[in-house]
Amino acid sequence: MEKENFNRRDFIKSSIKTLTVGGLALSALDLKKLFAEAESKSPGGITKVINLSDYPDLGSVGGYVTIGKVIVIRKSESNFLALSLKCTHKKCDVEYNGSSFECPCHGSTYDGNGKVTNGPSTKNLKSYKTTFNSEENTLTINM
Hints:
With 143 residues, the protein is an alpha+beta fold. The chain is built from 1 helix and 10 strands. The protein is elongated, with a radius of gyration of 25 Å.
């Protein structure tokens, strides 16, 4: 068996080719992820349908649950409110006490409907459209 002569120049060329191909493959994966995120965040993009039977706390008026970074509050028999739990000032997580929201980072407060009652925040909590289907006992949240 004959030994191949592999010099420094060949090694560098081979390494550059390998790194280029690997970099392109990783870039393609990242671009795919980037486009997937952009599509899911496009206007009217994410729609979440929840079965209220799976969330007993939403069975009565005033009940609420958190789903990820969103809180869903039952305001009446057929009306629900879905709000982001991110403060509009510096994006800290707000806390809900059953009637209002407070940001522990800088003291902003919001009423039970997500409207600013005390700054430094000047924008209301982001709200999402909800649609209640009483026949199927489901709630659709458009995020």
